[in-house]
Design brief:
14 helices, 21% strand, six-stranded parallel β-sheet, alpha/beta
Length: 416
């Protein structure tokens, strides 16, 4: 099928997906997890081909070492990919949940219930394990999905996609075309024009990719352009805690969007030099007071800056941050509260690594991405972020005219 046919088929599939039972969705997910485990050697072989091709792209400067790292599938990523699907199975079905019920008048009941968004367009770079994560979340939340991965991962993407659909095709009464994969840049351009069929676009990739999508579609876009995350070390911070958290936030996975890029240090913190030396020994390149704070290094490079006080730290983060995830290390409860209330980010942490900002670690099973938006969904977006709501009004023949004329009045009584 061409891209137009794929999108229209997905739009039809979403109607059937909306009405699937939790048992049927979980049956489909279990089949997918089992099939991925069954054919994991096939996925590794496909990934090996992509890695060989990607090496030449790194040498030519067409992709970064960070992208190459995201592309590689190892036993840990495979295990997490499969475990993530089982975690989604365990989660409560987010569809048709009653958000509230209100009696407008006698025998006139308003209900607000959760429903799937519809058709999701997910555009991502490298990280082929994303296909399984997003497909499982889409299935559980009753959404159809159209995936477009980076060309550097075409073989791996295709292998995982085929394995997923082989499993879904063997599940009785599961709708066809629920999970779809497209390959070319032309497909992206056409997807962005199909606002009559695609309900939400979620980009996962570089700042350049996200901005391009945001500027070239009428479809709502959910995501973040960059991950400029901060840690503020307050004057009361424990040194051992500070060094442990900072090293984890920078080195545990430097290419992640929730890795720290700038550490702000209170001028009265007693162990400033010791901290810097510890970071350097951990293999981190420390840049002191750089001219540019808005860089996402995606590497073991870290900005440091001495600040006068808590307020300067908050102002710096709100000015130069990307509203992703920021953390304070402190033993002062009042300062922690001020920081967490006034830093304008999707995630604000106290005494912990920014790397915890993740759907899997939050217990969402997985995530389709992290959003810095201020509408619909914010932070790691899991099942609930893939649902919207509708209002259902149940009456017994009521008309508006009697209320407009004051003959009858509304009760507006919330129901349990």
């Amino acid at each position: 099928m061409n891209i137009n046919e794929i999108v229209k088929a997905a739009n039809k599939a979403k109607i059937k997906l909306m009405s699937l039972s939790s048992d049927k969705k979980n049956e489909a997910l279990k089949a997918v997890a089992e099939n991925i485990k069954k054919y994991e050697d096939k996925i590794y072989e496909a990934n090996k081909k992509d890695l060989e091709y990607a090496k030449t792209l790194v040498e030519q400067g067409k992709i970064t070492n960070a992208t190459f790292g995201r592309l590689k599938l190892d036993e840990n990523k495979m295990r997490d990919m499969i475990a993530g699907i089982y975690d989604v199975i365990k989660l409560e079905d987010p569809v048709n949940k009653l958000i509230f019920a209100r009696q407008l008048d006698e025998d006139l009941i308003l209900k607000k219930v959760s429903v799937p968004i519809g058709v999701l367009g997910i555009i991502f770079e490298a990280r082929p394990d994303v296909i399984a994560q997003i497909s499982s979340l889409a299935i559980k939340s009753g959404n159809a999905v159209i995936l477009k991965g980076g060309s550097e991962a075409n073989n791996t993407n295709a292998a995982i996609f085929e394995i997923i659909n082989e499993a879904l095709n063997n599940v009785d009464n599961f709708p066809k075309n629920a999970v779809n994969l497209v390959y070319s840049h032309e497909d992206i351009k056409k997807m962005l024009d199909m606002d009559g069929y695609i309900d939400l676009i979620i980009p996962r990739g570089s700042n350049k990719l996200v901005k391009f999508i945001q500027e070239n579609t009428k479809i709502p876009v959910l995501g973040h352009a960059s991950g400029i995350c901060h840690i503020f070390i307050d004057e009361t911070a424990d040194f051992d805690m500070a060094q442990k958290i900072c090293i984890d936030a920078k080195t545990q996975y430097p290419t992640a969007c929730n890795a720290v890029e700038t550490i702000l240090i209170h001028k009265n913190f007693k162990y400033c030099e010791e901290l810097k030396q510890t970071l350097i020994k951990a293999g981190i390149e420390v840049i002191e007071n750089p001219e540019e704070y808005g860089i996402e290094y995606s590497d073991t490079i870290l900005n440091t800056k001495i600040v006068e006080n808590l307020n300067e730290a908050i102002e710096h983060i709100n000015t130069f941050g990307s509203h992703h995830t920021d953390s304070i290390i402190t033993n002062d409860e009042n300062n922690a509260e001020i920081f967490m209330n006034n830093v304008d980010s999707a995630g604000v942490f106290k005494n912990t690594s920014t790397r915890f900002s993740d759907g899997f670690r939050y217990g969402f099973g997985a995530e389709v991405g992290i959003s810095t938006n201020k509408t619909h969904a914010r932070g790691p977006v899991g099942l609930d972020g893939l649902c919207i709501y509708k209002y259902k009004l149940i009456g017994t023949g009521q008309i508006v005219d009697v209320y407009a004329k004051g003959i009858k009045t509304f009760k507006h009584k919330d129901l349990k």
